[in-house]
Structure formats: structure tokens, C-alpha cells
Amino acid sequence: MKKNVFIIMLLFVMSIFSMELVAQENLNALVKKCETMSAVDVNVMSTKNPETKELEREIFSINIKENPSLVNEFIAAFKKDEINALKVIEDKKGGKLSSLFYQFENATYSFQLGERDKFGSTVERDGFAYFSRITAPRSNITLK
Q: How far from the centroid of its chain's Cα atoms is residue 131's Cα?
């Protein structure tokens, strides 16, 4: 009997962890696809705890240039994963989508349409966008 209870508890805990991984599966699959594309610029910044060497935070950025179909793929991936997001912010300017922000339990995703200028501002241009994913252990992410 104790063995059955233990197995059930173990399956429950494993299902919780697997749900976290699939919560943003469409976005993660698209990010994986972009890692090998020549039409995008990819930047990854990792921060580790100096004492434990454990990952504290990772920022993964993709700069999309002149690729309207990839921009549309990202928007579709956001919409597919929206149901699992804990927080969703969608900005529109003049009735047109300008940015998306989704917060999941273990990661935050943002997407801005347009091209970034040298000052970091976004200038509206078709086929250009900026995507970022910030992952951190749950203790480092706060919902507000």
C-alpha cells in the first residue's frame, strides 16, 4: 500500500514538472528553429551564482530582420501558448499589434514588432521584430 501511494505521489510530481516544460512548447520550438537560421541574430547571456555555479538567469534574444513569415510564426506561437501563461500583456497601436509579453511559471517571453534603432527604441517596419526569453528558477521570478 505504501509503495502504491509513493508511486502515485511520484507521478504527480513528475506531471507538474512536465507541465512546466510544455507550457510554452510552441515558443520554445520556434526559438530552437531560429538558433540555426541565418536571417536572425541570436544573443544568449547567462548569469551563474559565483559560489554554487548554478544558473540564476538566462536571457535569450532574437533579432528578426526582413522576415515577415517568421514574425507571423512568432505571433502564432504566442497565441497557441497563451492558455498556459500566468500573465499576458498585448499592446496595440492604431489597432495594429505592437508587442506581446507572456509570463509563465519558469520563464518570461516578450516580442516587439519593428526594428530597434541605435538608441534601443522600436521603429515600425514590416518584417522586423525583437524577441526575448528570460528563464530563471521559480524563486527568481516574481509575479506582480
A: 8
The amino acid occupying position 37 is M
Nearest to 23 by CA among 98, 77, 97, 59: 77
Assign 21 to helix, strand or coil.
helix
Over the chain (144 residues), the average pLDDT of each successive run of 10 is: 49 43 80 86 90 88 88 92 93 88 91 66 65 74 46
* pTM greater than 0.85 (yes/no): no
Grid cell listed for 64:
528578426
Contact 108, 133 (CB under 8 A): yes
Q: Are 129 and 71 in contact (CB under 8 A)?
A: yes
Check: CB of residue 2 under 8 Å from CB of residue 29.
Answer: no
